[in-house]
Specification:
The complex is a heterodimer. Chain A is of the alpha/beta class. Chain A is built from 15 helices and 34 strands. The radius of gyration of chain A is 42 Å and the shape is elongated. The two termini of chain A are 60 Å apart. Chain B folds into two domains: 74 residues, no CATH class; 213 residues, 3-Layer(aba) Sandwich (Rossmann fold).
């Protein structure tokens, strides 16, 4: 507690007056002459003591009254910390939420954030406790509940670091609320230090901070011009000597401040291409870079734009391209059959083809190797080939697609390949012979990797396909039915066997039993079928900060694991693992990560999240409207509110004055009852 | 019609305290009192006029003074006898407790005024008035005489009285008994801080000697009302002992004991046909004069 007029406190010496009078009065009233004590009896001691206590109580009231008056004139100013010491109910549990996302790394925003956190820690009272959380896309609790400001300052300085992450207020507030659940004090508070970036507002999902937790927001941000690479279209896997496509890059800037810039493409440190751009009033420009030649293996590339700005990390886009050999697909069919033409055409369409389709009647010696031939398609074979050969092929990781059409002998398949196929063949079903001219696929597992690309807008491309005939199948218990005909019969059935997969398609590849080969969905469908059955996964050319890297898959394409290391873009080893299944690692830094395993070295490119580069901020009211209920809001302190708050802090004087007046009133009442009167008049004789 | 009139203000002890001359006080009190009895005391007074007395069955109704009746609602008859030859002995307690006062007039002052007034009244009625002051023993004595100059001697003596020792009425009266040989009117003015049984014994002794005894019990208003509202330490004026006084605790006990004391005195006086009058020093003296006249009338 401080005083605006401390000189008035000298008036506290006035309490000496009642004390002096009290002592003098006691002396005066010590003996009162009286005619005779004949009718006065001795009083018990406790009664006397009680009366003397009344005197002391009067003295206390007088001194208290004077002190309260003096305090009132001294104009006391009360502070939060002092209040906390006085009243334990006012003790707070405070979560200090520090935004350490990419946008906060700008100077002096990060220093301002740390300064705000320090000031908050200094404002904590003795009974308060606090906890520090730093957050970006995810939240990291840096400490336990601490009461010591020194400990908190130390944690703040040693453990808070700026990151390259995106912002997620929802995640941060949820973690803070969870931590407050274990807080000791009744009064709970979240102190959010952030730049109120609009990008962090996504996906609030209607969740709000509970009403009993107050949320105070310290906005340390400011909107500035930021030029950044929003997206680059580049593919990692390349199956030709030259990168087959034009690399596209979208650069975004401030529409209010159009300007010129330059972009450069580097591959393995060599400048491949450069282009200038003029940022128009739209604030977006698309850039193209010419194709370039590739060496065998993995090549690291990056696109750099200039001029640089306060956030240089998003002015560079890192990527990786890898020159690979096309994967062989062996299509086996009888000599008389011709339906594979459509399949061959579908898988050979376009440039940079990942597949090389090879037609054959039967597999050649050594051809059934899952590494050399990841996928085999049996197209309408009258009789199945050797079971043992295919069984070992599939179990070692090979993929098999069985297409059933008019020539297939169901009994032979059921007898010879009953243990390999996920289905049992029943009979041919000719839809034309019945009332309906055709049937269609109506039940599809749209989440499956084969059908996922059709999920959003292309469902009709699958559903509108007409099937005139198909094989009625009975799926085995372990099999998964991925699609059914309108009649409920399975259309596509899948089953894993060892490391490989077997898929059975119940209709033909040619337009005899179906018009599917004439449909637009045919090519992407079979492309996905080949990818899925052959276990070919397309790796992206670049990941984003906080995306996970599956070390298991990237360590060794042969599937065998061994000792490996992950080296970050600064050249420092992040992790060295020698485990059977190392799992996943989140990548925290933009640049090229090196994954070293026993057999090869791989590279992974990581970039900052592009939406984090949009430095647009939301108003504090908008933020509160989304996350903070009315009762939990602590408004930013404006001038007028500041004056009101100070006035409230200083308005304590009248309370002291009122209490002082009440004390004097009580003194008057008590004194009137007990005031000594030597020979008062007006008494009433009871004799 | 009540007896209260403007003339009564001269009998108020607070007013009398402003008069320094005791003779004037006595004259003021008595003449004022008599004015209360008759609006013009000098017109009706002939040389033969002696005194007023209250009407008693058998008196001639023609002697009733109707003007006095109109003023007082009491029947008084005029007496025209000459010298009654009555002796008045005023016994005045001058112990230290009589010095107690909560106002301008102490109990001793009040007793002094009363004694002077009684002496003046006696002088007017040609009675012989004497004065004896005492505490635990006789302090001083003025023998009764009828001469006019004796009145001034008595007043002079009264003016010189001062409080001395402790109260012992019984002891003092036993020693004084030989000084009052013939039947007389004995007026005892005291605060009677004395054991009742012992006092009653002495009073009986006086009564059996054929004296008419009047007890004027003089108490200060504070003694009667005990208005202390705070804890006090009271000191006995005679013994210097002190005791704590706590109103809530002591007041009721005090009143109960005082009441018991006064009732005891009244009872004993009634038993031996002695007149008793409790006087409040805050109230006028006429009550005492009425009591004296009543006793005087009974005697003659």
């Amino acid at each position: 507690m401080q005083f605006l007029a401390p000189l008035f406190l000298i008036g506290a010496l006035a309490i000496g007056v009642p004390i002096f009078l009290h002592l003098v009065h006691r002396e005066k009233t010590k003996r009162t002459p009286f005619a005779s004590l004949m009718f006065i009896r001795k009083i018990p001691f406790k009664e006397l003591r009680r009366r003397r206590l009344t005197h002391l109580f009067l003295l206390f009231l007088r001194c208290l009254g004077i002190l309260l008056l003096v305090l009132a004139f001294g104009r006391p100013v009360i502070t939060g910390a002092w209040l906390n010491q006085v009243n334990p109910l006012l003790a707070r549990s405070v979560v200090i939420l520090i935004d350490h996302s990419l946008s906060m790394t700008r100077q002096p925003i990060w220093e301002a954030a740390l300064q705000a956190a320090e000031e908050k820690i200094q404002s904590l009272g003795q009974a308060d406790e606090a906890l520090i959380i730093q957050f970006g896309e995810s939240a990291e609790v840096l400490s336990q509940w601490e009461e010591s400001p020194q400990q908190l300052q130390e944690i703040l300085r040693q453990r808070t670091t700026p990151s390259f992450e995106a912002t997620s207020y929802l995640e941060a507030l949820r973690v803070a609320v969870d931590q407050l659940g274990a807080a000791r004090n009744i009064k709970k508070e979240i102190y959010l230090i952030t730049d109120l970036q609009q990008a962090g507002m996504a996906a609030s999902a209607g969740w709000r901070v509970p009403g009993d937790i107050s949320v105070e927001i310290e906005n340390v941000g400011r909107e500035t011009h930021n030029l950044f690479i929003e997206d680059v279209r580049v593919e990692r896997a390349v199956f030709t000597d030259q990168y087959p496509h034009t690399i596209l890059a979208r650069v975004r800037g401030n529409p209010q401040q159009p300007g010129k810039g330059e972009a450069q493409l580097f591959v393995e440190g060599n400048l491949i291409d450069r282009t200038t751009f003029d940022m128009g009033s739209e604030g977006v420009v698309n850039l193209t870079f010419k194709p370039f030649d590739l060496e065998e293996g993995v090549s690291r590339g990056k696109i750099v734009i200039e001029p640089t700005d306060e956030l240089p990390e998003d002015n560079v886009y890192y990527f990786v391209v890898e020159k690979q050999a096309p994967r062989r697909i062996l299509v086996l069919q009888d000599r008389q059959a011709s339906s594979a033409f459509y399949l061959e055409s579908a898988l050979s369409a376009g440039e940079n083809l990942p597949f090389a389709v090879e037609m054959s009647v039967a597999p050649g010696p050594g051809q059934l190797n899952s590494l050399d031939t990841p996928l085999v398609v049996l197209n309408d074979l009258r009789q199945p080939p050797s079971l043992s050969l295919f069984k070992s092929y599939i179990e070692s990781g090979g993929g098999l697609i069985v297409v059933l059409s008019n020539r297939v002998l169901a009994e032979t398949y059921n007898r010879q390949w009953g243990t390999l196929l996920p289905v049992e063949l029943n009979e041919r079903h000719f839809v034309r012979q019945e009332s309906k001219p055709f049937t269609s696929i109506t039940q599809v597992n749209w989440e499956h990797p084969i059908f996922r690309i059709f999920q959003d807008v292309h469902k009709a491309a699958i559903a509108s396909t007409q099937f005139y005939s198909y094989w009625r199948l009975t799926a085995k218990p372990d099999a998964t039915i991925l699609a059914r005909f309108n009649e409920g019969d399975p259309a596509l059935v899948e089953q894993s066997l060892g490391e490989g997969r077997v898929l059975v398609f119940a209709s033909s590849l040619d337009p005899v039993w179906t018009d599917f080969p004439l449909r637009s969905a045919y090519v992407p469908f079979w492309y996905r079928m080949a990818q899925y059955a052959g276990r070919w996964q397309s790796t992206p050319a670049a990941l984003q900060i906080n995306q996970v890297l599956s070390v298991d898959s990237s360590s060794d394409s042969s599937g065998t694991s061994g000792t490996w290391n992950l080296i970050d873009p600064r050249g420092q080893r992040v992790l060295g693992l020698n485990e059977e299944k190392p799992g996943f690692i989140q990548l925290k830094m933009p640049g090229h990560y090196e994954v070293r395993s026993n057999k090869k070295t791989d590279w992974v490119a990581v970039n900052t999240p592009p939406h984090e580069s949009d430095l647009s901020a939301v108003a504090i009211e908008e933020f509160q409207a989304v996350f903070v209920p009315l009762e939990a809001r602590v408004e930013e302190v404006g001038f007028e509110q500041s004056v009101q708050a100070k006035d409230r802090q200083q308005s304590l004087w009248w309370l002291f004055l009122l209490v002082g007046a009440a004390v004097f009133m009580a003194e008057w009442l008590v004194a009137n009852r007990t005031r000594p009167q030597a020979f008062p008049q007006g008494g009433e004789s009871r004799v | 019609m009540t007896r209260t009139s403007n003339s009564n203000r001269f009998i108020d002890p607070q007013v009398l305290s402003r008069i320094r001359d005791l003779q004037l006080i006595a004259k003021t009190v008595v003449e004022g009192f008599l004015t209360g009895l008759h609006h013009s005391p000098y017109h009706g007074f002939s040389l033969d006029f002696a005194e007023y007395r209250e009407y008693a069955p058998g008196d001639d109704p023609r002697r009733v003074d109707w003007m006095v009746y109109a003023r007082t609602d009491r029947f008084y008859v005029k007496k025209y006898e000459g010298d009654t030859n009555t002796q008045l002995h005023i016994l005045l307690d001058v112990s230290k407790s009589m010095a107690f006062s909560s106002q301008k007039v102490s109990k001793l002052d009040y007793a002094r005024y009363l004694a002077a007034a009684l002496a003046y009244l006696a002088m007017r009625q040609k009675d012989a008035a004497g004065l004896i002051s005492f505490d635990s023993d006789m302090v001083s004595q003025v023998p009764p005489r009828t001469s006019r100059g004796h009145f001034f001697t008595l007043l002079h003596h009264l003016e010189g009285l001062e409080v001395t020792g402790k109260t012992d009425i019984s002891g003092a009266l036993e020693k004084l008994a030989h000084l009052i040989r013939r039947r007389a009117v004995v007026v005892l003015i005291s605060d009677f801080y004395q054991d009742i049984e012992k006092l009653a014994k002495t009073l009986r002794f006086f009564y059996h000697r054929g004296n008419d005894l009047i007890l004027f019990h003089v108490l200060d208003p504070v003694e009667l009302e005990m208005p202390f509202q705070d804890i006090s330490t009271l000191e006995d004026m005679e013994t210097q002992e002190h005791l704590s006084y706590v109103p809530e605790h002591s007041r009721s006990t005090y009143f109960s004991l005082l009441k018991e004391h006064i009732e005891g005195l009244r009872r004993e006086c009634r038993n031996i046909d002695v007149d008793y009058e409790l006087l409040n020093t805050g109230k006028p003296l006429d009550q005492a004069l009425h009591r004296y006249l009543s006793v005087r009338e009974k005697r003659y």
